[in-house]
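Quick one: structure for this chain?
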Amino acid sequence: MLSAGVASLGSVWVAQAKDHTELHAEQASSGYERAVLEIVEFIKSGNLSAAQTRVDKHLQQFPKSRVGHLLKADILQAMAAPLQKVGAKAETIKMVHDDPELPPPSEVVKGLKHQLQNRWSHAREADQQAHALVPASLIDLGQHPHVLVADMQQGRLYLYKNEDGAPQLIRDYYLSVGSAGFGKQVEGDNKTPVGVYSIYRYIDDSELPDLYGEGAFPVNYPNRLDRYRKRTGYGIWLHGTPSNTYARSPWASEGCFVLSNDDFLDIENYIDVKRRTPVILSDQIEWVSPQQLAQRRADYLAVLSQWKQDWESLSTDAYLAHYSENNFNLGRTDYRQWAKRKREVNNRKTFVQVDMDIKHLFTYPGEQDMFVVKYQQRYLSNNYQGVAEKEQYWQRDANSGRWQIIYEG
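Got it. Here's what it folds into:
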């Protein structure tokens, strides 16, 4: 048993906890999260009096904090008798919120335990920032001032700034996703999609039910790859939290990804609908050093450079070798007809010049060896010139190991 009569408050995370008070203060995304972690620190050390003082202050500042009410109930019980498990006072939560649509108390407690585990795990394992690691998916931010990257396994949303081409972390937030987790396949499965998306619209809270909190930013799910994979559904939004609670459990939505209202109001300052701020919804982030990211960027840009060089050389066979014949253009175009037309076009060229202005290049989460690049293409030849917005999906062939284009449009 823990000291001062506290036995096992969320044994998974308390048993593994280390003394990270200073780290919490630096890493917490808000006063709310910092307070919750400080309360847990006091409980872990057996200082129940300090824990009670801190939780009372927390609930005065955040009266809708269900986690705060849960912790207070357990602190009070621990003062009277050994606390055997988190949520021993589950009925207290129901009384505080008095919502007939709430799940059974056991499910409420399960969700709150999950939230605490995610918050504690983030504070305990936040050495990504301490060691200046960055998400491996952020190969090239191009022209975007900011990009969002979600780690749905850990329940965090990271906000990166484009600092002269290098991603710089400026915020991270506690995140809630679908009640059935992530990896959306069909409409109604209550899962959040995994993939690369963009925010294209803002919806003010005055146009929305209370469920969506302070507003919403829809993303473009399903994208081209989702449709090719026959994934269905719609209405995947980044939005706020209902007014009767401060934060939802990590798995709570119908497929959207959700922030507290305070965090939503903060992040909306960095989202640019006109520029379609990218959102990378990852099942789990791979963290790499800036040096590793720079090397990967060089490798991917070399792939694009070779494709461009082969196109400009008018060596049609070399150019066509960059395109996958299997399910060409995600099954939307017949490869043989397209290749035949390309040969006919190239036979009429005396020169070709192609310039690429990359808007972004990201590796694609949930897929094996895939990246997506958006760019502005400026094309010049002896008989045609034009400017176009382009997008390509590249995937490494499992047999040859060669990167090939599986979609271009």
